[in-house]
Write a structure and sequence with these properties.
With about 575 residues, this protein is an alpha/beta fold. It has 25 helices and 13 strands. β3, α6 and β4 form a beta-alpha-beta unit. The radius of gyration is 26 Å and the shape is globular. The two termini are about 20 Å apart.
């Protein structure tokens, strides 16, 4: 009711100002603008952006969260949903709504380096919000121009806080700032916290599933960024709310009442997310002699050419080799002119019998489930299409290069008549394909979050069947080692979607999993060395997983179910 009277008073004041003939043109314009903004704000019960969003599933609690942040919190909120409920979607919804209403022009998303490209693609593909990023090195030849000329940015937090970037990113005003993995701001003495505190920002959204990891003071530091003064000084906060162990609050109901002004935390119990079980299997295929020699020769080549090839090129070549010799051949064509790799090209032609494809045909002939086969590279998907055709297995193709009409036809065929579609990385994006319940990762992304995105096409709200995941790899390949870490050691496929991201962040907030595994692979040559190196990585992840589980228990104890939309 207080909100209503506050709004009515402001609206009346604006109307009075309009009728005041003593106002000059500038003041008249300001009054009209104020009245327009107030009239728009009065109607936050309806999100005007929703009809334009056709590439995402929109769940009621996400819409309600967006409405509440816009209507009650004034665009400054801590989104602390449990892992897997879509905090990114909620933040992007709020962002899109502000853009749709003309209330913001500039946007800054701060995120760990490993998530920069993911944020850029999600904003573009699902919300039609185009951004530039700190990954765009060619744009940074003039840093001043980079930070002043682009209104919509996705930036690595680590880059933004660096000495060269800090004064530039804080030297301009931002309409909306979104901070992902906001628990990295838990310490006020760090550059992370100081950067966000120094930003000139009208609206700010902070996203984390684990607001408190060690101490209630971390919560104080986060909420102070959102609403300075809400919890008074740190000393006063400690006296009023922090018990001797620093973790359990005194006056918990009073503290919760204050937190309700800036925080939303949806839980799986609230939204009734009950997904069926998922089961993962590793299918390790023994390569043919020519395939094995090609893979080993490529590895030796990459180990000897670290000074010539950059990380991205080395990773690309080895990932293509894990997909198929044909995918590797495509990349080698572009490198032939500057590197001596004729022998490798010869072996890609000799390795015609792809053992992994044979294993896939065997699996599909035995299966009665509709099975989505994921590949990363066009050459591999083309080869698999021919292989399925020769085996008399009906298939469809769902590729990013296809038209909307072609994609619709492919999904319809998969639903009605075809047991197998071959899908690219974007296959099934935004589509309702829960009628299928089996996935084949014919080649394996080295980024665990990309693996989860594939699985999430089927294992999502609306799925009623158990989901089966088959991960293919060559024996003794880097993919086999990755699966030993992710599947055998930390049981990634039994975790809730999104938890692996938090676990990796607990090892190191800037850790790039694909770079780490590539480094281990190239640095260690003999099998015992590789085993030791990857076992150590698994141990680090297990320790991070245990830390995450303790943090989750602490947050459940502090917050319970008192902050849901």
């Amino acid at each position: 009711m207080d909100e209503f009277y506050s709004f009515s008073f402001k609206q009346t004041s604006a109307l009075v100002a309009l009728k005041n003939h003593q106002y000059d043109d500038l003041n008249y314009y300001k009054a009209r603008n104020q009245l327009f903004n107030l009239s728009v704000m009065a109607d936050y019960d309806q999100l005007v952006c929703l009809p334009s969003l056709t590439n995402i599933d929109k769940y009621w609690y996400q819409i309600e969260t967006a409405r509440r942040v816009l209507r009650q919190f004034g665009g400054r909120a801590l989104l602390a949903d449990e892992v897997g409920l879509g905090k990114t979607i909620e933040a992007a919804l709020i962002c899109k709504e502000y853009f749709a209403r003309g209330q913001i022009q500039s946007l800054l998303v701060l995120t760990p380096a490993s998530l920069v490209s993911q944020w850029q693609s999600e904003l573009a593909e699902k919300f039609a919000i185009d951004t530039v990023t700190t990954d765009d090195k060619h744009l940074q030849q003039d840093l001043t121009e980079f930070w002043t000329e682009h209104p919509r940015m996705v930036a690595s937090l680590n880059t933004a806080k660096s000495g060269k970037h800090f004064p530039l990113v804080t030297g301009r005003s931002w309409d909306l700032v979104i901070v992902d993995e906001a628990h990295h701001l838990k310490n006020r003495r760090t550059l992370n916290w100081k950067l966000v505190n120094s930003l000139s920002k009208r609206f700010i959204l902070m996203l984390t599933a684990t607001p408190v990891q060690n101490s209630l003071v971390e919560l104080y530091n986060l909420l102070t960024l959102l609403k300075p003064g809400l919890l008074q000084t740190e000393a006063a906060f400690k006296r009023e709310y922090v018990s001797r162990n620093g973790r359990v609050p005194k006056n918990p109901e009073k503290l919760r009442q204050l937190m309700r002004e800036v925080m939303i935390r949806n839980t799986r119990a609230l939204v009734d997310v009950k997904l069926p079980q998922r089961f993962a299997s590793t299918i390790s295929v023994t390569p043919s002699a020519s395939e094995q020699k090609l893979y080993q020769d490529l590895t030796d080549f990459l180990r000897s050419r670290e000074d010539i090839l950059d990380k991205l090129s080395r990773t690309n070549l080895l990932m293509r080799a894990g997909s198929s010799p044909l995918a590797l051949a495509d990349s080698l064509k572009n490198l032939t002119k500057r590197l001596e790799i004729d022998d490798l090209k010869t072996f890609t032609r000799r390795a015609a019998q792809i053992e992994k494809a044979k294993a896939l045909i065997d699996l599909l002939k035995q299966s009665k489930q509709k099975t989505l086969v994921f590949t990363t590279y066009r050459a591999t998907s083309s080869y698999l299409a021919k292989t399925l055709e020769q085996a008399n297995i009906p298939y469809a193709e769902f590729l990013g290069s296809m038209t909307l009409k072609q994609k619709d036809a492919a999904i319809a065929a998969f639903r009605d008549t075809v047991p197998v579609p071959i899908a690219s990385e974007t296959g099934g994006e935004g589509r309702n394909i829960q009628f299928a319940n089996a996935i084949v990762n014919y080649d394996l992304p080295w980024n665990p979050m990309k693996i989860e995105q594939r699985i999430g096409r089927l294992h999502r709200i609306g799925q009623t069947q158990e989901v089966f995941i088959f991960n293919f790899c060559l024996k003794d390949s880097i993919e086999e080692y990755i699966l030993k870490v992710l599947h055998d050691k930390i049981n990634m496929f039994e975790l809730v979607v999104g938890e692996i991201e938090t676990i990796i962040g607990n090892v190191d907030e800037e850790l790039d999993f694909s770079e780490v595994v590539m480094g281990l692979w190239l640095k260690n040559q003999a099998k015992p060395e590789l085993d030791t190196a990857f076992n150590q990585l698994a141990d680090d992840l297990l320790a991070a997983k245990a830390k995450y589980q303790k943090t989750r228990e602490l947050d459940e104890q502090i917050f319970g179910e008192d902050f849901e939309a």
